[in-house]
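ok so i was messing around last nite and threw this chain in just to see what happens. nothing serious, just curious
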Amino acid sequence: MLVVDPNPEGGLRIGVSAGRSVGNAVLRNRAKRQLRAAIDGLLPTLIPGKDLIILARPAIQQASFAEIQSALSRLLERAGMLCAEGTHD
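result:
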């Protein structure tokens, strides 16, 4: 799940969260690490001026890293947060 809000400072801030429905503390931390790693590759293409909150869902435990990256990319694209690399100021 993705929550997008405007950032009055004009920067880009990203938060990652995993609730208890994802599993115990070990599983929640693993899910958050995977989401952070998946978003790292997309940082140059994200539009600034927004606050993003990425919420892990229980299905992340069965997904491969490639599936997580693909799902995150699709989610950001649907939210209108991706631009062509190097085109934002």
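not much to say yet. The CA atoms of residues 34 and 65 lie 7 Å apart.
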